[in-house]
Design a protein that fits this description.
The longest helix is centred in the C-terminal third of the chain and has 35 residues. The protein is mostly helical and 312 residues long. It is 74% helix and 3% strand. The protein has a single domain, classed as Rhodopsin 7-helix transmembrane proteins (Rhopdopsin 7-helix transmembrane proteins, Up-down Bundle). The chain has a three-stranded mixed beta sheet. It has twelve helices and three strands. The termini are far apart. It is globular. It is found in: Membrane.
Length: 312
């Protein structure tokens, strides 16, 4: 299939997904599809369990439900299109679909980061102020937190697709990526894209950077409080409670930082590496989140087993 690279008015884009490394498509398609199915199935199971099990109708599990919902949307936004490219070479994507994907990716990744921040605060209150926990972390708190998560990130990321959509695409319509990333799309424009780059950089570091700083600040307070616990086994129990949260947050942040650094050093590595990391960042955390919480949280494990027994 040949794609037009010198037209006067572009009406759609084409995603060049690992065309420089066609063998990647072969060995990536199976693990990527399995990760996608795992992420969808695990998150759906978690949502159903929390919804049907009355003992899990608590603020912490509501936050976990929000995280699962965000993971499902992110997976559905990115992975099916990538798999269609791998299996059927369906590279075209319309203008509206491309900019919608761009918005959802930026918005929901920021929402996920903000959700991790609220969950870190939940653990901070539970460990450092246990007696005040029931009066601070209430259903009303979760509702307000959810409104804040949605409103902050939905409004802050709106300019990203708008700035890209207002550009004039007149020559090249082949995106060197598997997804409609802002910078990959905007660089195809005939216009100056300095504002797009600056807003992406400033917005990303402001939203994700501030969340990350506050998250690690919360866990530093938690660690200090845990080390002061003198009751036998109390420190181990507290660390176990927070362990799953911290592991997932660390993984989410690490893969994001690795992507940034590989993008900066792209002249020294294959250009397909940042693209691969970008795709994996939309599916690996989504697959890990419900598994880690399910394995490390006894209440969720018991809820799933209870539902399975009912089903049988």
């Amino acid at each position: 299939m040949t794609y037009n690279s010198s037209i006067t008015d572009v009406s759609e884009f084409f995603l060049n997904c690992f065309v420089r490394s066609p063998s990647w498509q072969c060995w990536l398609s199976l693990p990527l599809s399995l990760l996608f199915l795992l992420a969808m199935g695990a998150n759906a199971t978690l949502l159903i369990t929390i919804r049907l099990e009355a003992s899990l109708h608590e603020p912490m599990y509501y936050l976990l439900s929000l995280l699962s919902l965000l993971d499902i949307v992110l997976c559905l936004t990115v992975i099916p299109k990538v798999l269609l490219i791998f299996w059927f070479d369906l590279r075209p994507i319309s203008f509206s679909a491309c900019f919608l994907q761009m918005y959802i990716m930026n918005c929901f990744l920021a929402m996920e980061s903000c959700t991790f921040l609220v969950m870190a605060y939940d653990r901070y209150v539970a460990i450092c102020h246990p007696l005040r926990y029931p009066s601070i972390i209430t259903d009303q708190f979760v509702a307000k937190a959810a409104i804040f998560i949605v409103a902050r990130n939905a409004l802050a990321t709106v300019p990203i697709p708008i700035l890209s959509a207002r550009l004039h695409y007149c020559q090249y319509n082949v995106i060197e990526n598997c997804i409609c990333a802002n910078l990959s799309v905007s660089k195809l424009s005939c216009n100056d894209v300095t504002i797009n780059r600056l807003y992406q950089f400033a917005g990303g570091w402001t939203l994700l950077g501030s969340d990350l700083i506050l998250i690690f600040l919360s866990y530093s307070f938690i660690l200090r409080a845990v080390l002061r616990l003198k009751a036998k086994g109390a420190a181990a129990k507290a660390l176990s409670t927070c362990g799953s949260h911290f592991i997932l947050i660390l993984f989410f942040s690490t893969i994001l930082l690795v992507f940034v650094f590989t993008h900066v050093a792209k002249k020294r590595i294959s250009p397909d590496v940042p693209i691969l990391l970008n795709v994996l960042h939309h599916v690996i955390p989504a697959a890990l989140n419900p598994i880690v919480y399910g394995v490390r949280t006894q209440e969720i494990k018991q809820g799933i087993l209870k539902l399975l027994r009912k089903g049988l």
